[in-house]
Design goal:
single chain, 525 residues, alpha+beta, 2 domains, 10-stranded antiparallel beta sheet, 5-stranded antiparallel beta sheet, 11 helices, transmembrane helix, transmembrane, ABC transporter transmembrane protein, membrane, ABC-type transporter activity
């Protein structure tokens, strides 16, 4: 085997590099579960959307339940509900009768017939009301299985159907839902699900005053000054709305895809809908639901990764590259091992290149393992498919920081030996990590340019160009801008062409300087 290839293999396949790769893989899985924990704490209902229909027959004393609950990829989610009925009968003492129905599992197109114990008035009288209370006690999405929940859903009234011994009602699960009211009764529920980069309308009705109901919709960009949802009952204005489909069956879940058209790139969308009867005039229920694209499970997780999650790991990753510079150049140089290698038919340029390329391969492979583990883990654990484009940007940012910092450490290792290298490299690492930000903020306030929060943000991101560790933050800023975490002001500072120029400077200058110095440097111990 040629000495060039032999030294390259020894530099690449060593315990330090293998351990580094494993650590990056574990870090990706770790960030997956940290992100899942954040979702569980604050935004669990982002993981699922759906509609559950109820129909109570007081003659047969059965409560029929139909559910359609889906995750962010429109796969069936599993929800456990604890159900109770509250029946108000005028003249009955003490007024409200409470019936506990127990716990039930709901999946896609779940159809249950739950017996209702106790005496129920078969013929509805004036003032009789039936109210259903539902509590989520367990949820399973992906491999995420959370029990011992006690999330009380909005209590829903079961309205009487045409003065018969039948009562119907519904609930919607998730954040973007609404009740459908065509007349004075609750005629159905709807929900907006964002899955597979498309919007879906999930809806159903336990009672239809007229069959079929015609469904119309429209999607537009929501005005930031009026981000409110609303519903109306009465005359429906169909101007500018598109016909979607018909609802002709009761107690059935319908899932309709919605075309986004030219508004798919906006954060807030106003999804309007109308259900229209055909009893001599165009009447029905209409409304609108605000959809926050950045507030979806994908958006929340991606923003957490970009703003907080990466900082937990990415700022520690360069320590691996610092150590590689030590074991590949600084340490063997202090021990005289490099001169021993040069006794073989291998040039100084070959030796410099083999060990530099070995470190660069680690800098490129390690973040690939990290991002792949994160991307796969989030989908398996939470059923959320992150954007491949976002993951690519995260990878480029981390890899860019590692390559730039390793190149700088490699040059320092050429100039200094052993402990001297470690002292200087660690000092620079801490300066880029903490000191540069402090110095920059002091200068900004001293000079007087930081007169607003926008100027402070711009100053902060300008400083990242002066650090080999800053590329992770710069690229993450572009991702966060896409989800509206950072405003337009960030694009004045963070531009792809600026990032490329800074990266080229941080890699080419130390690399060429290190190569020139390595050719003439005394490598003896």
């Amino acid at each position: 085997m040629k000495p060039f290839i032999y030294d390259f293999k020894r530099a690449l396949f060593r315990k330090a590099t293998m351990v580094a790769l494993v650590l990056f893989l574990v870090a990706g899985l770790g960030l997956t579960y940290i992100s899942a924990q954040q979702i569980i704490k604050g935004s669990l209902n982002l993981l699922y959307n759906g509609v559950v229909l109820f129909r109570l027959d007081t003659v047969s004393q059965k409560l029929e339940v139909v559910g359609g609950v889906y995750d962010n990829e429109l796969n069936p989610a599993n929800i456990e509900l604890s159900l109770s009925l509250y029946i108000f009968i005028p003249g009955y003492s003490p007024g409200w009768k409470t019936i506990d129905l127990g716990k039930y599992q709901l999946t896609e197109e779940t159809r249950l017939e739950i017996p209702v114990p106790g005496e129920i008035v078969e013929t509805p009288g004036p003032g009789m009301r039936v109210v259903l209370r539902a509590v989520i006690t367990r949820i399973r999405v992906g491999t995420l299985d959370i029990s011992h929940l006690n999330e009380l859903l909005p209590t829903t009234s079961l309205d009487n159907v045409n003065n018969t011994p039948v009562y119907g009602g519904c609930i919607f699960l998730g954040q973007r839902g609404s009740i459908i009211s065509i007349d004075s009764h609750i005629n159905g529920c709807m929900n907006i699900a964002l899955a597979r980069d498309k919007l879906y309308l999930i809806m159903g009705s336990p009672q239809l005053p007229v069959k079929p109901l015609q469904i119309y919709y429209n999607v537009s960009v929501a005005e930031l000054t009026s981000l409110t949802s609303s519903t109306n009952v009465g005359i429906v204005n169909l101007t500018g709305m598109k016909y979607l489909d018909d609802i002709s069956d009761v107690m059935r879940i319908y899932v309709f895809p919605i075309e986004l058209g030219d508004v798919s790139g906006h954060q807030f969308l106003n999804v309007s809908w109308a259900v229209v009867t055909s009893n001599g005039e165009i009447r029905g229920g209409s409304g609108n639901i605000i959809v926050n694209i950045g507030g979806t499970a994908r958006g929340v997780i991606t923003n957490y990764i970009g703003s907080t999650g990466l900082s937990l790991f990415a700022l520690l990753f360069p320590v691996v590259m610092l150590y590689l510079g030590y074991v590949l150049i600084a340490k063997p140089k202090s021990q005289g091992a490099l001169e021993f290698i040069l006794a073989r038919p291998i040039t100084r340029t070959d030796l410099y290149m083999t060990r530099y390329i070995a470190g660069i391969l680690v800098a490129l492979t390690a973040p690939l393992l990290f991002v792949t583990a994160l991307y796969t883990g989030v989908y398996v654990v939470m059923g959320v498919l992150l954007s491949p484009q976002d993951m690519l940007l995260f990878y480029l940012g981390i890899a860019g920081s590692l390559v730039a910092f390793y190149t700088l450490c490699y040059y320092i290792a050429v100039e200094f030996k052993g402990t001297s290298y470690l002292a200087l490299a660690i000092t620079l690492y801490l300066f880029f990590l903490i000191g540069l930000q402090i110095v920059g903020m002091i200068l900004a306030f001293t000079i007087g340019h930081a007169s607003s929060i926008d100027e402070i943000i711009k100053t902060q991101y300008k400083l990242y160009y002066f650090s080999p560790l800053g590329f992770t933050n710069l690229v993450s800023a572009l991702v966060q801008y896409n989800y509206w975490v950072l405003g337009e002001i960030i694009l004045e500072v963070v531009k792809p062409e600026y990032i490329v120029v800074a990266f080229a400077a941080w890699t080419l200058i130390p690399f060429i300087a290190g190569l020139l110095r390595f050719k003439v440097k005394n490598l003896s111990s």
